[in-house]
Design goal:
Layout (H helix, E strand, L loop, with lengths): L28 E5 L11 E3 L2 H8 L8 H8 L11 H10 L5 E5 L9 E11 L10 E3 L12 E5 L6 E11 L4 E4 L14 E17 L9 E14 L11 E3 L10 E5 L13 E5 L2 E7 L6 E5 L14 E5 L10 E3 L11 E5 L4 E10 L2 E4 L12 E14 L5 E9 L9 H8 L3 E5 L19 E2 L12 H5 L22 E3 L6 H14 L3 E4 L7 H8 L7 E5 L2 E5 L4 E5 L2 H14 L26 H7 L4 E7 L3 E5 L13 H17 L10 H20 L8 H4 E4 L7 H5 L6 E4 L22
C-alpha cells in the first residue's frame, strides 16, 4: 500500500472497473512463395497493395524451363506450380485483401548477381557540347590536377574515343574545363559520355552484389563517383592585416605597369607588406603599394605583367594570404567542423588542384598528412571529397527504379560509409570493400569499361528448388524460412502457399496453424483434377484449421497477355478478408462473387449440383458459376471430421474470440488472485462478448442466451489457487450458416389444416 510519512495532500490514480478487450484483426494474410526478387531473410514483409508487392518483390514470374516445369507440375504428390504465386497475390488484392505478409522462397543454391570494380579517374559528362566547342561541363573535377592535364573523352554507348586534349583552364564551381583543342564530334549526356584521365587499373577495389539471389540482378547497374561534400573557404592568416576594397581611379592600358586606385580611408601604405595581392576583375595580381597622394594610391604591377585594358571604376580588392611560409601541414579553414579524421580534401588555388588527407581538426585549424603546397589565399577553396552511389534497376517490363546515396565515406565502417549506408538503406544492392580500395581520388573505384558496372552471374537455381524450401527451417526469430517464418508475425490470421499442392507442404501449413491456434489455412489442390481426383486428394486431411477449394480459376496473365489457370487460395484469402471487413468473421465466406477472374468461364472446370452433392459432405468447397449471379464461392466447410467444427466461419470466429481474449487480458497475470480480480475478469470478458453478440456474431435474442462467463469458486479449487491458476469458463453460441435453405410447399384446400 502507499506510504504516508509526512503531512500533506496526496493525489493517486486508481483503476476503475474492467479493462476493455479490443478485437484482433482477422483479415491479415500470410503467404509463402517464389518471387522474382525481394528480401528472403528476416521476417516476412508486409505489402498493402499489388503495386507495393511489385516494387518490393518484382512482377510476374515467367514459366520455368520445361524440365523444371514438368518435374513440379507432373508430380501429383509433391508438386506445384509455384511460378503462379504473383498471380495469386494479385488475386488476393483484387478480392478485397488489404494486408499481406509475404515470405520469399529461394533455392539454397541460388546466387546473387555481383560485379567488381577496378580503379582509375573518370568523370561523367554533365552537359551536352556541340562539335567545335572547346569547353565541356563534367560531373566533377575531383582527382584532376589542373591546367595542362591530359584527358580523353569517350562515348558511353560503345566506349569509342571521341577526343583527347589538355586542360587549358578550369572552374571547379561550375565543373567546366576549357580544352586546348576543339571537339571533333558532339558530346551527349543521354548517351552516357564520360571523360577519363590515364588508364584503368585492374586491382579489385569494391564489390557490389544484388541484395537478394536471382537472375533479376542482371538488370542492376551501379556507378560510384566522387562528389564535393562541402566547399570550405581558406581563412586569411591573422598576420596579413586589414582587408580593403576600392576602385580604379583612372583607365589603365594593357601595357601599363602601374594603376591608380581611389584612396581608402584609414589606409596606411607603410603598414602594408611589400607583396600585397589584389583582385582586379577576376584575376589575382601581386602589387607594390605606393604612398597615398592627392586622394589616390599607386599600385605597381610586376614588370611584364599581362592584363586587359581596365576601365575607371573597376573594383579592386585586397586578397589576403591563407598560409605563410613555414606553415607546413596546417591551414585555417572556415567551417572546419565539417571535416573529420582521414577525410580527403582537394585544394584549389585557381591553377592547380591538390589532394590531401586530414590528420586532425582543432577549431578552425586543420592538420594534413602532408605539406600544404604553394601560397593559398582567402579566395581559394578547400573541397571535401566524398562518394555518391547511383543504382539503376530495369525490370523485364522496362520499368526503371533509381536509388542515389550521396555524401558517403568511401572507406571505414561508420554509418555514413558506402558499405554501411547500402546495407541499411538500399533496396537493390550491397557493397563490400576489397584490399585495393584507396581514398586517393585518382584511384577511385570504376568498372573495367564504361561508367556503369552491370551486375552478372546471378542465378535462381530453380532446378534445385525443393519442397523443403517451402516448408522452411526454424532458426529462431527473424531467422526462420518458408512456412515456419509466418510464426514471426502474430497478426497473420489466414495463411497459404499458393500453387503448391505438395502433401509435405500442406501438412506443414496445417501443423503451423494447429500449433499456434490463431490462424486458418487455405489449401490448393492439384490443377486439372476430376471429381474422383479431388476426393482422393482430400482423403489424407482431417483438421479444423484448414479449408480446401475446388477447382482452379482462370485469369489473365498481364506479363504474357494470355489466360492461365491459377490456384484458388490467393483469391479466397482475399474473399475472407473482404467478408471479414464488410460483414465480420462470423459471416461464412461463401455466396460471394470471386473477383479478378475471366468473366466467362472464369472457373477452370464446371461443377454441377450433382458433383457438389459428392464434394460438400466431404468438406470440399466448390467454386461455381450461376447464370445471372456470376462466379461464386459455394461452400464454407473445413476439413474436419468433427461436426462441431465443420464450418469455416465458426472455426474462425472462435480463433478471433480466443486471440482477442488472450491479448486483452495479459494485464491479469501476477495480479492478486482473489474475488476482486475474478469480478474484473468476468466483467471484462462479458463486456467484450456483449459487443460481439450485438454485432450479430452470436446466436440468441438476449446476451444470456448468447454466452456465459464464469470465474469464481465454482471454476477453481483451492489447489488451483495455491498453484497460481485463475480459471475462467466461457461458453458462446455461434451463428451457423444457413447452408441448406428449405421451403416446404403443399397444396391447401378449405379442409386442409396445418
Amino acid at each position: 500500500m502507499p506510504e504516508y510519512l509526512s503531512p500533506g495532500v496526496y493525489v493517486e490514480e486508481v483503476d476503475a472497473g474492467p479493462r476493455p478487450i479490443a478485437g484482433v484483426s482477422t483479415s491479415t494474410a500470410g503467404m509463402v512463395g517464389v518471387t522474382l526478387r525481394g528480401p528472403y531473410t528476416g521476417k516476412p514483409k508486409l505489402v498493402t497493395s499489388f503495386l507495393e508487392f511489385q516494387r518490393t518483390f518484382g512482377g510476374f514470374l515467367p514459366e520455368p524451363d520445361p524440365a523444371v516445369r514438368d518435374a513440379w507440375a507432373g508430380n501429383p504428390a509433391e508438386g506445384g506450380r509455384w511460378w503462379l504465386f504473383p498471380l495469386a497475390v494479385k488475386g488476393f488484392f483484387d478480392n478485397g485483401g488489404r494486408r499481406l505478409y509475404v515470405k520469399r522462397v529461394v533455392a539454397k543454391q541460388a546466387t546473387a548477381a555481383s560485379g567488381v570494380l577496378g580503379h582509375g579517374l573518370m568523370s561523367p559528362v554533365a552537359g551536352d557540347a556541340a562539335r567545335g566547342a572547346k569547353s565541356v561541363e563534367l560531373g566533377h573535377l575531383i582527382g584532376f590536377t589542373g591546367v595542362g592535364q591530359r584527358l580523353e573523352i569517350f562515348r558511353g554507348d560503345d566506349q569509342r574515343s571521341i577526343h583527347a586534349a589538355r586542360i587549358a583552364s578550369y572552374d571547379v564551381t561550375t565543373r567546366r574545363v576549357e580544352l586546348d583543342a576543339p571537339l571533333p564530334a558532339e558530346v551527349k549526356v543521354a548517351r552516357g559520355d564520360y571523360v577519363q584521365v590515364g588508364s584503368r587499373g585492374t586491382e579489385r577495389t569494391l564489390e557490389f552484389s544484388a541484395v537478394s539471389p536471382g537472375a533479376w540482378g542482371a538488370g542492376v547497374r551501379v556507378r560510384i563517383t566522387p562528389v564535393v561534400g562541402a566547399a570550405l573557404p581558406v581563412l586569411p592568416d591573422p598576420q596579413e592585416g586589414a582587408l580593403f576594397v576600392t576602385r580604379l581611379a583612372a583607365d589603365a592600358d594593357a601595357d601599363s605597369e602601374t594603376v591608380e586606385v581611389a584612396e581608402v580611408t584609414g589606409l596606411n601604405a607603410g603598414e602594408l607588406p611589400a607583396d600585397v595581392w589584389v583582385l582586379i576583375g577576376a584575376t589575382r595580381y601581386k602589387v607594390q603599394v605606393g604612398q597615398p597622394a592627392s586622394g589616390r594610391v599607386t599600385l605597381t604591377l610586376p614588370a611584364g605583367t599581362a592584363h586587359p585594358r581596365w576601365r575607371e571604376g573597376l573594383p579592386v580588392r585586397r586578397v589576403r594570404r591563407g598560409n605563410v611560409a613555414g606553415a607546413g601541414r596546417t591551414l585555417r579553414v572556415g567551417g572546419a567542423g565539417r571535416l573529420y579524421e582521414d577525410a580527403v580534401v582537394q585544394l584549389d588555388d585557381g591553377g592547380s588542384l591538390t589532394v590531401l588527407t586530414v590528420d586532425a581538426v582543432a577549431g578552425d585549424v586543420v592538420t594534413f598528412n602532408g605539406a600544404v603546397p604553394g601560397t593559398l589565399f582567402e579566395t581559394d577553396r578547400l573541397y571535401l571529397v566524398e562518394a555518391q552511389v547511383d543504382v539503376r534497376f530495369t525490370d523485364p517490363a522496362g520499368t526503371t527504379t533509381d536509388e542515389t546515396f550521396g555524401n558517403l565515406r568511401l572507406t571505414g565502417d561508420q554509418p555514413s560509409s558506402v558499405v554501411a549506408t547500402l546495407a541499411s538503406r538500399s533496396q537493390l544492392v550491397r557493397a563490400r570493400a576489397l584490399e585495393g580500395l584507396s581514398t586517393d581520388p585518382a584511384r577511385f573505384p570504376i568498372p573495367a569499361t564504361g561508367a556503369w558496372l552491370t551486375l552478372g552471374e546471378g542465378s535462381d537455381s530453380y532446378e534445385t528448388l525443393t519442397v523443403a524450401d517451402f516448408v522452411g527451417e526454424d532458426g529462431g526469430s527473424g531467422l526462420r524460412t518458408g512456412v515456419v517464418a509466418l510464426e514471426d508475425i502474430d497478426e497473420v490470421a489466414v495463411c497459404a502457399v499458393p500453387g503448391v499442392w505438395s502433401g509435405t507442404v500442406g501438412s506443414a501449413l496445417i501443423t503451423h496453424c494447429e500449433l499456434l491456434k490463431d490462424r486458418f489455412a487455405i489449401l490448393d489442390p492439384q490443377d486439372g483434377l476430376d471429381i474422383e481426383g479431388i476426393q482422393a486428394f482430400r482423403e489424407p486431411f482431417d483438421t479444423k484449421y484448414a479449408a480446401l477449394y475446388y477447382p482452379w480459376l482462370v485469369t489473365r496473365d498481364p506479363s504474357t497477355n494470355r489466360d492461365v489457370e491459377v490456384p484458388p487460395s490467393g483469391h479466397l484469402a482475399g474473399v475472407y478478408a473482404r467478408v471479414d471487413v464488410e460483414r465480420g468473421v462470423h459471416k461464412a465466406p461463401a455466396n460471394v462473387v470471386i473477383r479478378g477472374i475471366r468473366l466467362t468461364d472464369g472457373i477452370a472446370q464446371d461443377v454441377t449440383k450433382r458433383h457438389q452433392d459428392l464434394l460438400n459432405p466431404k468438406g470440399i468447397n466448390a467454386l461455381r458459376f450461376f447464370p445471372g449471379l456470376g462466379h461464386r464461392v459455394w461452400g464454407a466447410r473445413t476439413l474436419s471430421s468433427d461436426s462441431a467444427w465443420k464450418y469455416v466461419n465458426v472455426r474462425r470466429l472462435f480463433l478471433f474470440l480466443e486471440e482477442s481474449i488472450d491479448e486483452g487480458t495479459q494485464w491479469v497475470v501476477f495480479e492478486p488472485n482473489d474475488e476482486a480480480l475474478w469480478a474484473l475478469v468476468r466483467q471484462t470478458v462479458t463486456n467484450f462478448l456483449t459487443t460481439v453478440w450485438r454485432s450479430g456474431a452470436l446466436a440468441g435474442t438476449t446476451a444470456d442466451e448468447a454466452f456465459f462467463v464464469a470465474c469464481d469458486r465454482s471454476t477453481m479449487t483451492e489447489d488451483d489457487l495455491r498453484n497460481g491458476r485463475l480459471i475462467c469458463v466461457i461458453g458462446v453460441a455461434p451463428v451457423f450458416p444457413a447452408e441448406f435453405v428449405i421451403f416446404r410447399i403443399q397444396q391447401k384446400t378449405r379442409e386442409t389444416q396445418l
